[in-house]
Amino acid sequence: MASQMLQGKVAIITGAVTGIGRAIALEYLRQGACVAVNHFPDDRSKRQFEEMKQEAGDGAKLIAVAGDISQPSTGQELVNRAVEEFGGRVDIAVSNAGVCQFADFLTMSPDLVNHTISTNLNGAFFAVQAAAQQMAKQTPPGGSIIGISSISALVGGAGQTHYTPTKAGVLSLMQSTACALGKYNIRCNSLLPGTIRTQLNDEDLANEGKQRYMEGRIPLGRLGQPHDLAGPAVFLASDMAAYVSGAQILVDGGAFVNFQ
Fold this sequence. Notes:
Pfam family, one: adh_short_C2
Shape: globular
Number of helices: 7
Order of helices and strands: EHEHEHEHEHEHHE
GO molecular function: oxidoreductase activity, acting on the CH-OH group of donors, NAD or NADP as acceptor; quinone binding
Protein name: L-rhamnose-1-dehydrogenase
Keywords: NADP, Oxidoreductase, Rhamnose metabolism
InterPro entries: NAD(P)-bd_dom_sf (IPR036291), SDR_fam (IPR002347)
Radius of gyration: 18 Å
Largest sheet: 7 strands, parallel
Structural class: alpha/beta
Oligomer: single chain
């Protein structure tokens, strides 16, 4: 069996029972990590975690902590549970939880705007802060924090005027925390997925014409899948990235650089 890149490390991941977060969590488990995942406190998410646990298999070091990530207490509870369950440390934190509902700018409701910002940006801030507080005080201090931003942090989107600023905010948060936390040996980096088939965009990409158009703009010729983010997330969490901090990695099949 190949060596595991995250053997013995403890990871927390927000929004991790579906999509990108789920794929990262399962790969972290395969790579030897203990994983605590956050999910929204509803029955559907609980069922999704049980399905995820089955896929992970018997003996997987995997726990779930339900909670609304927009509430500061949720990140704190996730960290505390991971520390209690897995031996007193948090080595890796992935801020992944997010929402995206396409809407027209001129008619967008304040409720939708506020919900998107409180989940995607405020939630990321509080979860990252909770993880960093633990990483800074543990012995020895240190860890890897990964913010799941988006290609949308770098480009515009007519139906995403409430969403793109939050993803730009996550990118900026990782840059600033890289500066603030380096003295504690905490590395902070961003992953910027392109068009990834998840539950967030299934409805939008149900239109075959739209899907073909998107695929045509991607040099690798296909839409991304959640597991495409898992490898880069393992790299940034591992000791192979020991001198990588404040970086941003596009995971988009080449879409951003294709101006044709």
